[in-house]
Amino acid sequence: MGHGHDHLHDHSHATAAGGDLPEALDLSIPAAELAPSDASRRRFLLGAGLLGAGAAASVLAQPGAAEAAGLPHTHDPVGGGTAKGGFRFLAGDHHIHTQYSSDAQYRVLDQAQKGHAYGLDWLVITDHGSATHAKIGVDKVNPDIVKTRSALPELLTFQGLEWNIPAAEHATVFVHPGRNEVDVLKRFENAYDGSMLPSTNTAAQNEALAIAGIQFLGEQVRKRKIDGALFFANHPARRGIDSPHEIRNWRDADPTVAVGFEGAPGHQAAGIPAPNGRGGARGYYDNNPSAASFAGYPLESYRTWGGFDWMTATVGGLWDSLLAEGKAWWITVNSDSHVNYLDQTGRGPGSDFDANGKYNDPVYTGTINTQAGDFWPGYYGRTNVGASSFSYKAVMDGLRAGRVWVDHGRLIKGLDARVRVTGDRRGHTGTPLGGVLRVKRGTSTELVLDIDLQDIPNWAGFVAALKRVDVIVGTVTGPVTDKDTFTTPNTRVVKSFEVTRTSGRISFTYDLGRLDKPFYLRVRGTDGNRTQPGLLGTAVDPYGPQLDVVGSADPWGDLWFYTNPIWVLPR
Asked: Is the distance from CB of 36 to CB of 24 less than 8 angstroms?
């Protein structure tokens, strides 16, 4: 359902942790054991600062940095030929709770069946990290996940957990299925979960432990214990405690593991106005600064904007400040499903969560729950991943590479965005989402965007209508001197396309000009129902998402899609 088309093409030689690293890049292999060609390649990469500490912190560094980091990249296609390979977009959700979470209730199979029925191809079970979960839950949930994989082979079901990041908010951590998936998650949670740490720890000690936890996951991949591990920070602006320097440090700790954050939180049903809903804030973003919050964040950061997190929704804001550094950092959307809107079940009677690490299976109550804040997985938000095949590895590789676009309420059916040398019309050429196109200075490039408009109703029962598409472009400025920077000066909406058609495919081409300085671009679109000038002013974002008002924030009345970025850099 709604997977777009198998027609995106990548020129990537991605070698990041989803598969085996080339031996030259795998620092766990001693130099003495390398073939001479690999040894010389490693010496070159180390000398260029592209391996070891801080490696891959940027797509800039030197020519070849993206390649050395295992990021998708292309060279100037003119004269060089282009690799071909189609992608299939697989919809998923990496943030879902079950009866193994103290504040949730459903079986793994309930969430998986519903997620698949609502159009998902993959999902991640992420019960909360806690003493009970570390002791009991990681082991106990695994047989349910394994059974679900057998019962629903057409759905990829990953095991993960929601990590209490030391000194910060929460994150999804998940691993490639395999014989060590439970062992690695259990060791990770026992050593690094914030709920398990001494209360006497300082903030600096906890921040260092968060970095160490991400590095631990990368080591498990390099030691071949697991075939991949990924980290996404969840609801990053909800409480103001994920400071900009922490986000940068997570990514730099291991860019093959720490790859992004939620561009929009789950809990979107919490905004449905009373009396039909709880009349709260989308995402439960109804907080104010606390002593633990980063003091620099404005009050507007504690609310959603068109359902999206302030870090993502603000053009020229925190996400853009990372992209302008050349940091590969991606956005997703998820359900964060715990207890779902309009459901008619409750926790099984006689449950003892502390003793058993789970609630008994849900039972029918006959009461319609209008106060729940969540939707079933796939019901409202989708993370669409460009995958080379239907497999666990392909989904992880697509996420790691940033071949991802996200939407709410099935706003569009499919999307294909790429940047190419102007006029290069050899098939579907160009660099896809998450990629890096390297061309000579002075070369003209263009964005080619194909969008399949929605023609089937969403789960609220109406056909969403796309009204406007915005192209956002930012200059790449390189590393910031202050790691707590959360704005960037040269990112803005450069073009808006009004959409008048209501069905079929629309195609836009936008001339990006001759390359005189490195830049990136990203794309968003909206049904146009609620807009206001962006926080950094009309010259930056004349028609951005509107601030969501607590108590009057119907998630179906305001729909957006966002893509991840593409970079264009001189070679």
From this structure: no
Tell me which fold the domain 88-570 belongs to: TIM Barrel (3.20.20)
Reduce the DSSP state of residue 61 to 3 states and report it. Answer: coil
* Pairwise CA distance, residues 322 & 308, whole Å: 17
Give domain limits for the chain.
Answer: 88-570
Could you give the dihedral angle defined by the CA atoms of residues 493, 495, 500 and 501, in that order, rounded to the nearest 10 degrees?
A: -100
Q: Is 533 exposed, middle or buried (0-12, 13-18, 19+ CB in 10 A)?
A: middle
Question: Contact, 128 vs 101, CB < 8 A?
Answer: yes
Residue whose entry in the numeric block shows the structure tokens 């998986």: 112
Cis peptide before 518 (omega within 30 of 0): no
The C-alpha atoms of residue 553 and residue 82 are separated, in whole angstroms, by 46
Q: Is 291 exposed, middle or buried (0-12, 13-18, 19+ CB in 10 A)?
A: exposed
C-alpha–C-alpha distance, residues 78 and 208, integer Å: 46
The tens place of each residue's pLDDT in the chain, 571 residues long, gives: 434 333 333 333 333 333 344 565 556 667 777 777 767 666 655 554 444 443 444 665 544 444 434 444 554 443 322 223 379 999 999 999 999 999 999 999 999 999 999 999 999 999 999 989 999 989 999 999 999 999 999 999 999 999 999 999 999 999 999 999 999 999 999 999 999 999 999 999 999 999 999 999 999 999 999 999 999 999 999 999 999 999 999 999 999 999 999 999 999 999 999 999 999 999 999 999 999 999 999 999 999 999 999 999 999 999 999 999 999 999 999 999 999 999 999 999 999 999 999 999 999 999 999 999 999 999 999 999 999 999 999 999 999 999 999 999 999 999 999 999 998 876 557 999 999 999 999 999 999 999 999 999 999 999 999 999 999 999 999 999 999 999 999 999 999 999 999 999 999 999 999 999 999 999 999 999 999 999 999 999 999 999 999 999 999 999 999 999 999 999 8
**CA 86 – CA 389 distance, rounded (Å):** 9
Identity of the amino acid at 343: D
> How buried is residue 367: exposed, middle or buried, by Cβ count under 10 Å (0-12/13-18/19+)?
exposed
